[in-house]
């Protein structure tokens, strides 16, 4: 077996690139950014502001990764993020911080539970369900704020978005990386992770194998909700306010990041680390376009093109990988 | 046609004359599909040539192959479920019935009706395909292939979903086509079928051409020896397990619209076979026992104690295991690794605080893979890259890891080659020695008779007979299954 095992595990250069394309794209982007901005991109000030912005999308992307791995989809995350930000801000104005944090995480779980239960127990397609709940979340975010943003937040709220650990590393990055680490362990090392991946890969086979697939699928949305709540905490802190439209369009960034990271839309495979790199790719790209003074209108166009390009690469490289495998 | 020296397949050749039925047989992975893909233009050969009706033939795509007059009936159904029979048959060729841009639906239906009548397939051309049974869909596929008026039709295991009556119908269609001058390449794993139908048989093994001969010159032993490369003298292992106490018993199981009053029991070390026609609800009974489908009435007893299997999860906790009939849909998570698939059902047993003990997992799965002689380059390989026989072994291995008391095997050897079949039979025999109780559903009578200690015959959701090993005969069992002899209970 040993000889054969080695052959199976050994991956040549091309396979490595295909399996880690997000990292590669990121490297290329950084080099381009460094050169095109004459080093401005690589300054500490810029890098730390980029990383703070990215922290939120990493948190959202990580939750999204779990949902995609379970073969679900959640288009409501953007508005969920806005709503949770608003709720969190209101909480902090009335109750102590720890309770506010626990409260907003609980509400996030509820939002996920709503998405998951409607699509799983009522057997409706999650694509439509979450499109609809997105409107509901949006509506509540505006209802709660009357369409205005909430300002005057406490220092501790701001600290979670802007503070530094050891005077160097933004705390938001620490939070995002911690969640990434936890999810890595959960997805790769635990029974729950296996169940999510198996359910996403083939729900019927998973059911026959004794997995409560409905519960697993719902739970993935709940994980998404928790991640969105943490994202809301970081985002609200970073911009020192909660606006009802703060999370608009975040779902698109999340999808793009996750797919660039190598988690397929069809489920059954998960790349937690890949998602982080996917977020970095999107974040660095946004930053680069900003530094180059490209108008935000063009940035949207660019982002759309990149998503298509990323999915194209994903599909093509999957084909290549399968071909290689067939050849072995 | 011939293909001397197709490199990927390594020096393969094949020829079929008009009006001839050529059988093609080989274990899974022997290169049959690759060759058929080349023939249809889905794959391009790296070397070698093909000749069709005297001319060089190099199809660029399946469409190209069709234009030349080569069509294929695939093993899996390839119909659009929501469309009608007529729409499916003429899919992509609507222009045949189009005048000035308007599709003459009526004419298309009439044409389809004529075609179906000619083939004696009694269905309405306007029925949506998803309301038909799998077997009827397969016949629609046949009708479609015939409708191309192809000079060569390739059939890949066309009977795998058919009942005996429909198989006869298919044989007649095939013979008719050959009589009219169509060349048929008939791929099958069922030896009886090849003997019954084919003029000549070609054998492939490991991507190589082994030989071709007139059917009359073949014996079963010779054919199997050529396929496997060794003599498979005894297909079914000897029965020498000691049959013990009753392990599982069910009483009066009912599921509205599917089956009723199903009662039977199975003992330690016993193989209880289930025989019945397609649609006799054998599979449904097993699925309800395993908690996949609900039961309306009835009781399950495990070693005398009443149990409830409300979900597969609960069934597994009660030490049941189900190898489903549909490998792709319900058996395995194709893109996951061999190891992850094998450990899926028993994961709980190797978890500490929710964490998978990966050392244990590697050890158990490696051992099981070795015991079952699973041929995989690595346990990290995705299941999709294995041959059908090896996939099935992975699925059975998955269930053995749960250490079940009652093992339900639903069509355990469907679509896998002779060598792998023999290994699975050997495995079943081993399991009976470990005092496991086995319920085995199969459409292949020789297999059921070879492996079972008793056979329950199911017809239209009722158990219509229990036959002891001494009384096994194909005629008797089929008679019961069809409900033609009076020996019913």
Most extensive contact: A-B, 30 and 40 residues
CATH superfamily of the largest domain in chain B: P-loop containing nucleotide triphosphate hydrolases
Determine the CATH topology of chain A: ABC transporter involved in vitamin B12 uptake, BtuC
Instruction: Give the CATH class of the largest domain in chain B.
Output: Alpha Beta
CATH level-two architecture of chain A: Orthogonal Bundle
Low-confidence runs of chain A:
1-10
Number of E strands of chain B: 22
Assign the CATH class of chain A.
Mainly Alpha
Mass-distribution shape of chain A: globular
Number of strands of chain A: 2
Mean pLDDT, all residues of chain A:
88
Helix count from the secondary structure assignment of chain A: 15
Question: In short, what is this structure?
Answer:
Chain A is an all-alpha fold and 328 residues long.
Structural write-up:
Chain A is mostly helical. Chain A has a single domain, classed as ABC transporter involved in vitamin B12 uptake, BtuC, CATH 1.10.3470. Chain A contains 15 helices and 2 strands. Chain A has a two-stranded antiparallel ribbon with strand order 1-2. In chain A, helix 3 packs parallel to helix 14 and helix 13 packs across helix 14. Chain B has 489 residues and is of the alpha/beta class. Chain B folds into 2 domains: 208 residues, P-loop containing nucleotide triphosphate hydrolases (Rossmann fold, 3-Layer(aba) Sandwich), CATH 3.40.50; 237 residues, Rossmann fold. Helices cover 34% and strands 21% of the residues of chain B. In chain B, the strands form 6 sheets. A 6-stranded mixed beta sheet of chain B has the order 4-7-8-1-9-10, with helices on both faces. A 6-stranded mixed beta sheet of chain B has the order 16-19-20-13-21-22, sandwiched between helices. A 4-stranded antiparallel beta sheet of chain B has the order 12-11-14-15, covered by helices on one side. The interface between A and B is medium-sized, with 30 and 40 residues.
